Each structure stands twice: as C-alpha cells, then as structure tokens.
C-alpha cells in the first residue's frame, strides 16, 4: 500500500513536472503562446527568462543580490558616520574590478643593477580609474645625479655597499609587489570561475582548490610585505647615515645617494599603491567566496538535521521513504529564496534611492533604515528556522502515521491469511485432480511426438552421412584444384633474368600432389597423370616465354637455310640460300582469308618460307598449338633445325593440356557438390 501510494505521488509529480517543462520549452520558441501563458499565469515570463538566462545568468543573479544587499548595508553605515565620499563603492567596481597596468620604470642610475637582477614579470594592465587614483612618478630627462667624489667617511662606513643593498632590496620589493599584483588578479579570476563551476557541477574538491589558491595568495602577499619592510628599513638606515651631522660627506655624494633612493622609493611606492588598490578589490571576491561557502554549510546542516543518513559532501542518495519529504523541503526552500530574491530586487533599489535622498537632505532616519535592514535579515533567518521546524514536525507525524498504518495492515493480513488458507485447501484438491487428468493426456501426446522425432532423427542421420561423403569429395576436389593450379603456375613461370635451361624445374612434386589430392578410385585422374610425358616429370618443361624466345632463333636460322635439303649441302648452296633469304620480302598478310576461315587447302603446295610465315603469325597471337602444326610441315634442313623446338613445344602442350583437364575435372566435381548441397 505504501509503495502504491509513493508510486502514485511520484507519477503525479513527474507528470506535473514534465507538463510544466514542456510548456516552458514551447514558450521559449512561440511568442504568442508565451504571451497567453503570461496572461493566464502571472510571473511565468520572468521565470522563463530566469530559466533560459535571457537577461543574466544564475551566478549573476546571486552576485547581484549579494552585492545589492552588501552595498545597502555598507553605504548606510558609511553615510551614518559621515564617510560618503571616501568609502562609497560603485556598483560597477564590484562586478568588474579594475585590471592592472604593466610596470616598467627603469631609472638611469640602476640600469646595470636591473640587468643583473632581471626577472620575467607577468604583464599587468590597469584601467582609467586606477590610473587616476594612482599615478606613476615622473622623472625628468635632465634630472641626473651629479658626478661623485668619494671621501674618507664614504669608504669608512661602506656607504656604497649599503646603497647597493638598499637599491636591490627596493627592487626586489617592487618585483614582489608586482608578482603579488598578478597573483591577486589571477586569484580573483580563478576563484570566480571555480565558484561558477560549483553552481553547475557539485564537486566538493572545488572548495579545496579555492582554499589552496587563498593560501598561495596570502603567502605571496606576506612575502611582498616582508621584502617591502626589509627594503624600507635599509633605506631608512641609509637616510639616517647620510643625514648624520657627525659624518662628513661630499654634498655631491649625498645628492647622488638621495637621488637613487628617491628613484627606487618612487617605484616601490607606485607599485605598492597599485597592489593596495588591487587587494581592496580582491577583498570583494573573498567576501563573496565566504558568503557562498557559508550558504553551502548552512544547507548541509539543515539537510543533516532532516536526513541524518545523507552525506551532503558525497553522492546525494535519498531513500524511498524520505523522497517525498526531501522534495517538499526543496520546493519550500526554493520558493522561499525566490520570494526573498524578488523582494530584495524590487524593494532594495527603492530603499537605496530613499537612503541616498535622506543622506543628501541630512535626515536622521539612517539608523532606522539600518535597523530595518537587520530586522529583515533576522526575519529571513526566523522564516528558515520555521520551515525547518515545520518539516521536522511533518516528518514525526508521517512516521507515526506510517506505524499506525503498518499495525492495521498486520491485523488485516492475519484475517486475510485465514481466509486464504481455507481457499488454498479447496484449490489444491481441484488442482491435483486437474493435474492427474493433464498428466494422462501429456503422456499420450509425448509418445506420439517421440515416434515422430525418432523418424526424423533417422532421416537426419542418413542425410548427415550423405553430406559427410559429399563434403569429403568436395575437399578432394578443392585439394585437386589447388594442386592443378600449382602445376599450371609452374608450367607458365619464366623470366628473362636467367638462362632458360637453368629455369627448368621437375614437375614430379606437383604431379605427386595431384595424385594424392584425387579421390580414391578416380580413373580419370589416374589416366591423365599417366599420360604426362616422363621428360616433364624428371626435367620440367619450358615456359611459353622460353618457347617464344627459342622460336625466334630457330625461325631466323631456318629462314636462311630454307632451300637446303636434309643432310649435307655444298657451300655454294648454303650461300645461295642465305642470299635468297635476304632478297625475299615478307608479305603483310601471310595467310589467305580462306585459310584463316579454316577452309580446306593443299598443304603440300606450301614451301618452307610460307610455313615459317604462318607459324610466326600464330606465334604472335599466342597459339602454340597452331604454330606446332605448321612447323610440322617444314622440310629439309629447316625441319632438322626446328625438330628440337617442336619436341619441347609438344611436351609443353601435352603437360599443359593434362593440367587444364585435371583443373576442369576439379571444378566440375566442386560444382556437383554445391548442387547436391543445395
């Protein structure tokens, strides 16, 4: 019952929030709907502007409210004691503190010392207001120290050493103030950014970072003040020494020392003034940080009182029982802060103007206004305490209500348990009877299904056996195809980088791989492997590239000796054959169209030259089989010359034909397996 009630509350609240969020999101992009919503729900336009940060961000709103409140109190107190002109803090100076000006004021006497102690100082910028408040000391170009003449007292009291120490200490203090100036500027920007991040991201480590930066800032400021105090002591000691009437100094020496002290002291005073101004501006950031942290601690204490099990600094986890109370507390606190914020924004400005007018008129109501401000502050604190006490009472009443409901639920549960036990007995009897009937029906159906499954399993077993045989054949086909591809690649391999005889490779391994890859009892593979020439097995075959190269040499020699008969020939006949080969002109189309069309012709009418022309024609087109046919028509010495080439070509073609036949057989076997599988 409790869970259903909580579920109803959560669904109702979630639906309301989703509906409100949808209306706000739609009003953002539809001005007409936004106008209607403002008419129906007053104040919705200001709420939408606040949600989407149209006028200013959430942090700016909080800053503005805090700044307005602090300005009201401070200005009222200052006006009360009569310090309006000196302590009035402009609103713009709080939200936009002045930047700093780069300090770069070398003196004519201290150039050599500055080169030795040169340090990279962060550039400092500085707005018009700070420039008006603190102006840098001006030095005339003609204001140079007079020439120095040393005296006995000058060397006796080590005035030169003391002067050098004082100047260096003043410069170190100036650099320390400059570093502190830059550190204050960085501290102000970084702390503001960290606080802005803490609004959108609840990370407790941010406050540790802020404390670390505050400690670093205090350390730098303390270092600068220590160095400034040391430098001032040394300068005062040097002044007392040179102004002592008992010690005699040359007036030129005294004026030179006073000039150097004046220069470094003016730099130190100028930098210290800028530092003091920036420290006053940074105090606003410290106050703002302190206020924000105090607000966080106050909220943590309130949540700790209401929900002792919650760890505010870690992950916020609220139990289901405390969810409604937590939501109620959050809504009341948010409404209270929104009401107070609107009240401060609307009434604060009017009160500031009223206080200003009364201060101008010399009214004595300032104390009353300050008391009213403090009274309003106490009212807000009492209102917050009232909300907290109210929530405590609600929590106690809800706990008591839950305990009463729990006791009633237990009594009702006992009564229901008795009724359920009676119904349970009757229901069990009916269930047992129904189960017995269902068991009999299930056994009959089970036997029928079991018979069907046995028949299917037998058929599946037969199909799997057939598939295993087919897969075995397919594996043999794949291995056979791979071995045939290896044989074909070995036959076709050849390069021009090595002699052709050295490139010959026996094919025994490839042929053995084909025999091993073939299936048992494959008669075709056995017959084809047996038909491969023994020369190809033991020695190997020439590639097509090698046969083409050898044909060109054979053709050249056979062309020159085409007219010689087989056997011996006289030298004049040889010379005549050579001469005739040079005088013959090769025809552009050595083969007639009828012969290319594969029509019958008389091969005995062809001489050796015609045969060589036709063989060359088919060789250029890569048809070694047709080339070999024409080369068989050669006669006489030309045939003797071409005999070896024809034998090698015949071996090559026979081996290649066998490899192609085996490859086709492997592809066919694989195709048959794929059809059987499908």
What is the strand and helix layout of this fold?
Blueprint: H1 2-29, H2 31-40, H3 44-52, H4 58-81, H5 84-87, H6 91-95, H7 111-116, H8 128-133, H9 152-156, H10 159-200, H11 205-242, H12 251-306, H13 320-361, H14 366-492, H15 508-517, H16 523-531, H17 534-538, H18 544-560, H19 571-583, H20 593-596, H21 608-620, H22 624-631, H23 636-677
Function: Component of the MICOS complex, a large protein complex of the mitochondrial inner membrane that plays crucial roles in the maintenance of crista junctions, inner membrane architecture, and formation of contact sites to the outer membrane.
Family: Belongs to the MICOS complex subunit Mic60 family.
InterPro entries: MIC60
Q: Which features does this protein show?
A:
single chain; 678 residues; 77% helix; 0% strand
In short:
The protein is mainly α. The chain has helices at 2-29, 31-40, 44-52, 58-81, 84-87, 91-95, 111-116, 128-133, 152-156, 159-200, 205-242, 251-306, 320-361, 366-492, 508-517, 523-531, 534-538, 544-560, 571-583, 593-596, 608-620, 624-631, 636-677.
Structural commentary:
This protein is mainly alpha-helical. Among the domains are: 1-55, no CATH class; 97-115 and 148-306; 484-677, no CATH class. Helices cover 77% and strands 0% of the residues. The protein is built from 23 helices and no strands. The chain has helices at 2-29, 31-40, 44-52, 58-81, 84-87, 91-95, 111-116, 128-133, 152-156, 159-200, 205-242, 251-306, 320-361, 366-492, 508-517, 523-531, 534-538, 544-560, 571-583, 593-596, 608-620, 624-631, 636-677. The longest helix has 127 residues, at 366-492. The chain is flat. The two termini are 63 Å apart.
